[in-house]
Amino acid sequence: xxxxxxxxxxxxxxxxxLAKLISTGEVSAREIADAHLxxxxxxxxxxxxxxxxxxxxxxxxxxQVDAKRMGGERxxxxxxxxxxxxxxxxxxxxxxxxxxxxxxxxFPPYDSTVTKRLLAADIVILGKTNLDEFAMGxxxxxxxxxxxxxxxxxxxxxxxxxGGSAAALAAFEAPLAMGTxxxxxxxxxxxxxxxxxxxxxxxxxxxxxxxxxxxxxxxxGPCARNxxxxxxxxxxxxxxxxxxxxxINEPVPAVVAAAxxxxxxxxxxxxxxxxxxxxxxxxxxxxxxxxxxxxxxxGAELSxxxxxxxxxxxxxxxxxxxxEVSSNLAxxxxxxYGLRIGDDGSHSAEEVTNLTRGRGFGAEVxxxxxxxxxxxxxxYYDAYYGSAxxxxxxxxxxxxxxxxxFDVLVSPSSPTTAWRIGERADDPLAMxxxxxxxxxxxxxxxxxxxxxxxxxxxxxxxxxxxVMAPPMADDRLYLVGAALERSGLQNGGGKDGGGNE
Length: 501
Known about the structure:
501 residues, alpha/beta, Amidase signature (AS) enzymes, 17 helices, 11 strands, globular
């Protein structure tokens, strides 16, 4: 069953349109906030996108925006626009649980840099969205609290780990959302929900205040229902942060100008041969080929390019990422904060730690901790973790060579459309295959994004088109995304038909 599209035009409007209505006084920010909070109350029982709602503060922020407008203050490009925040960003006053029982009821004492920048931009944070526990998963079925549903078909998954943010967009519960992308956790949910998801260049958005999963891979990024909205949000949260040691001290690329342009005439596009073909859903490839034809019609120059080490990216990722997970999650030891089990005086500190981690972590988190600890252990470090890092270097060299010839590289965002809830629950390896196309960009640290290109003729579910660009060339993603959006492919335009209505 598909969730019905709302009748209220304020819910269907883009973030840019809402901001304009607010700035001209045609509609108040409070009215827009109330409309979205009402929508959440009406449909989130079916979608389960949100873990917590912050209605009082959302209305207060909206009222402040209205007061600024009436006082003659100039408003920012997203002032008063509602947003759904993935529950991995710290935000004082709301729990930050990472969808784990380990952090149930934990209220952070500080805001993440991304949260601070959202508030400084007068964006209205509606609440925190569901995710796979500690961002580990591809379906949002691994949450310690609830399973999120895909608004296109409530029996299917919304992707992961950021399925809550993507589902909130597709359900018209918010026009903007924030996610994090470690191996595809923004792009894969965007692909299967028909939304836009961007993984900026690693280090171009701050990780300060983002609960770490894999520190060399985690990248906060914008999520929206269209390209311009994603670019406006990207500009609002991006940029150097002295609180993040991996932050890049360079200006945010001209993403908004690129999103408004969409001019790809003469753009050199490399079609990655290793990401497509055998093993990919037939309907996904049909929409992908239609998108390639459309880009060529708009003046882009397309050629195939081989990146041979991409074939090893998934295996290397599932050694590096669990290794960093095992290190980062060691802090949850029941001694400092979070859940504590067995602290009744009858257990040693070690026993309390074991009881707490056994109760607090879910099956997928435990699996990755065990894999990572093994890969880092004495006698196996060089064979597993060390070898995976060598493969990572080879993947980056593949990108570097390809970008000498091409401006961007493209592929499907995911090999399949959304599968049914429970379909892969007992097969972790099948679940990991959802990251097949997205992982290489994380391993190299360059920018990448997923853009909707219509529905698969196989099952009527959304298909995403992935664009990958060199580091700090994030604006190129938006050029291609805007060109695809202009083509009408996501609404059934272009060759091969098959829209998302």
